[in-house]
Structures are given as C-alpha cells and as structure tokens.
Amino acid sequence: MSKQIQAIRGMNDCLPQQTPVWQYAEQVLRQTMFNYGYSEIRFPIVEMTELFKRSIGEVTDIVEKEMYSFDDRNGDSLTLRPEGTACCVRAGNEHGLLYNQEQRLWYMGPMFRHERPQKGRYRQFHQFGLETFGIATPDIDAEVILLSARLWQQLGLTSFVKLEINSLGSAEARSQYREVLIAYLEQHKAQLDEDSLRRMHTNPLRVLDSKNPALAELLAAAPQLADHLDQDSAEHFARLKQILTVAGIDFTVNPRLVRGLDYYNKTVFEWVTTELGAQGTVCAGGRYDGLVEQLGGKATPAVGFALGMERLVLLLQHLDLVPALAVNADIYLMALGEQAELAIHSVAERLRNELPAKRIILHCGGGNLKKQVKRADKSGASVGLILGEDELARGEITVKWLREDKPQQTLLITELAKSLA
Ligand code: ATP
Ligand code: MG
Fold first, then answer.
1. Is 239 in the pocket of ligand 1 (CB under 6 A)?
2. DSSP of 303-318, one letter per residue?
3. What phi, psi does 115 have (nearest 5°)?
C-alpha cells in the first residue's frame, strides 16, 4: 500500500459533519449584509507581494514572518493573501469603485498566515470582512459596530462577547506619541522582554499590545495615546462613543488597543470573548483613511472589520448554539427487480419535479430489501419508497414510514406527491 499524503500543517479539512455549522454562520452573515445594503466583492487568493508590504506594513508580524510568498514562473513575487482589506482596496482602485463614491462591500474566504497552529489559530483560516469607503464621519464607524452587534444577537452570542474600542488619532499625532512612548520604554529597557525590545524602535505601539503578564504593570503606566490625540480625532471618537451609548451598545475604552496592521487611524475596535482561551478576538477592525491613497488611489476615507470564521464556529459549537443539524434526506427510494430498477429513476425525477423542496436520495448499488432499508434508515429520511415488479405493473409504490409507528401503505405513483408534500 502506498503512503498516504497528509494535509499541510495548520490547514484543515471541513468535513461533512461540520459544513452545516459553517453554512449556518455564513447564511446569517449573508442575510445581515443583504439587510444593511452591502454588496459582495470577490478578489483573487494570490496577489503581488508588494501589495501587502505596502499596506500592512514592513515591520508588522504578518509581513515580517507570516506570509506565504513565492516566486511564480515569471519571477514575480506573489503572496497568498493574509487578509482581505488590502485586496479590496487594490480591486476598488483598479476598477474605479472608490474615488468620489460611497461603497459598502463585504467578502468571505480563505486567508493564509504562517503562524504556530493552535486552537483558533491556523495557517489557512477564513475571514468574513466588510469595508466601507467614502464616508469620513463617525456615523459609519458606528454603523459597522452596530452591524457586528446585530450579528452576535442573531447568533445568540451577545452575552459572550465584549466590545473594546480605542482611537489611534491621526498619523501625525501618532508619530508624536511614538517618540514619547519610545522615550518611556527606553527608560525601562531593563524590564522589557526580547519581543518588546525588538519592537521598541520599529513598532513601539505594538509593545503596548504585548500579552506578557510580566509587562502588564509597566505598560499600564506608560504614556497613553489618548492624551496625545489631535482635536479632530478626539471629536470623532467622542461622537462615536455618544452614538454607541445612545444605541445601547456596551463598550470599554481600551487605551492599549492598537491592532497589528499599520494602516489604521482614528477608530479601532475588537470584539473579544473569554470562551476560547488565548485566541479571544473574534472580530477586529477600524478606520483606515490613508490606505486607498497609499495604494495609489485618490484619498478616500474607509472603515472596515474582519471576523475570524473558525473562531466564530468554535464559539457556536462550544456554547451549543448551533440549531439542530439537518439530516441528509427526506425521501429514500428503493427498487427490487430488473424492471423496477429501470423505472425507479423516472419515479425519482418525477418526485423531484413535484416536490422541489424535498431532499430525495435514490438507492444505488443494488442489494436485497434488507440492505436497502438499512441504508434508507441511515440516510435520516422519514419516508422510504419501495418499488417492486408487482407494484410497477399496477403503477403503484409502497410507502414505508421510517420514523413513525405506522403501517406501510401502497399508493399510486401519480398520487404520491400529494401524500408526501
Ligand atoms: P490575533 O491577535 O488573534 O493574531 P490579528 O490581529 O492578527 O489577530 P486580524 O489580522 O485583525 O487579526 O484578523 C481579524 C480576525 O481574523 C482575528 O480577530 C481572528 O478572529 C481572525 N484570525 C486572524 N489570524 C488568524 C489565524 N491565524 N487563524 C484563525 N483566525 C485568525
Ligand atoms: Mg495575528
């Protein structure tokens, strides 16, 4: 026997028992997008490496060590997309969707990052994301947050997720703050860990995001971005908080929330849960007013978020919030004898015409009645239909109730749909 080839580490199959959970979550997401007037956009899985370097930032974890990049046969450096925002902006610029327009877009699909696989963290994972373009005012920041809150409500997750928000201010305010923060970190260099020392000069704001408990106290006492915000960002943030409060959305301002991608300004937010262990961020996003221009378009304000589908599915399963999974079939058709086996296909097609909402499985592969009924039972169908040579001659079929204690019946094939509807 030859050796089996295994899937790549951190890249999972989604097996038939799990797909109904995914389909359920996807359905809720699609429906909500439809209700809020958002349009779906689809873009390629592979893009030029340069796109992610220029958008996500050269000194971020993603670009420094997580990207799946390779040279294609022409020698171009390509990358399996690690996220969707850069792709969406690239597509929007390329097709003239962004300048001087308002867009509300969403996407869903696989993303790739070479991370250490663990629960809730994989190398191929899936994101649902949305991006809005052309609106600079905080009402749209509030809209995307309210929309995400509705998702939790629809999925029964409201009491298991918490909203954290922060403002990163303008690029200028942030670069001034950056100097203040570096000075503080320099003073306390001796207490910093290796990761933080490395990031201190390249990406000091990320040091604030450190999960190392030994640094918690030091970082809590660090100068805060909130005290260095520019006027415009401070007003924007105040207005957002006001809208959320009036709309009845609970939130916490987390002054250390910075996000791992460079393109954000003003609003950032995360929905976190304590139900999944270390991988607690289910959904994260914010405003990125500079990115469209940075990627070659005309300056266009933008807000968006991305939601980790695996974490959402894990959460739904962990909390037992998945509606009862549907069985595979409603009706299972069987035949005995050569003529009946020929005719059963037409009976099945007739039923499929007459009962388009039913799931109808036709037994294939022959076998005696016992074997066929066993399969029918396993399919989950509630009705078994058995066509024998005698019934065929009379234009009839036997109805066997598989889940009810009812005697079997014989019905005319022409009357069948009426009785089974
Ligand atoms: P984290 O802090 O968990 O690494 P991140 O800041 O890198 O997340 P984003 O790039 O903002 O995450 O992606 C948005 C969401 O996508 C995350 O909140 C998470 O739910 C999901 N996500 C990110 N990376 C992974 C991964 N490797 N596996 C599964 N889901 C992921
Ligand atoms: Mg990450």
1. no
2. EEEEEEHHHHHHHHHH
3. -110, 170
- Which of the listed CATH numbers 3.40.50.1370, 3.40.50.620, 3.40.50.800, 2.60.40.10 matches domain 331-420? 3.40.50.800
Distance from Cα 165 to the centre of ligand 1, integer Å: 17
- Please state, in angstroms and rounded to a whole number, the distance separating the CA atoms of residues 258 and 267: 10
pLDDT in tens, 119-139: 999 999 999 999 999 999 999
Instruction: Encode pLDDT of 282-309 as tens digits.
Output: 999 999 999 999 999 999 999 999 999 9
Tell me how far the alpha carbon of residue 206 lies from the centroid of ligand 1, in angstroms: 15
Q: Which helix (H) or strand (E) holds 282?
A: strand 281-287
DSSP string, 31-72: HHHHHTT-EE----SEEEHHHHHHHH-TTSHIIIII-EEEE-
- Name the fold adopted by 19-169+229-318: BirA Bifunctional Protein; domain 2 (3.30.930)
Q: Rounded CA gap, 19 and 284, in Å?
A: 24
Cα(335) to centroid of ligand 1, in Å? 52
- Domains 19-169+229-318 and 331-420 in one fold: no
- Residue numbering of the annotated binding site: 83-85, 113, 127, 131, 259, 263-264
Name the closest ligand to CA 270.
Answer: 1
> What pTM does this model have?
0.91
Q: How many residues does the chain have?
A: 421
Question: Which residue ranges make up each domain of the chain?
Answer: 19-169+229-318, 331-420
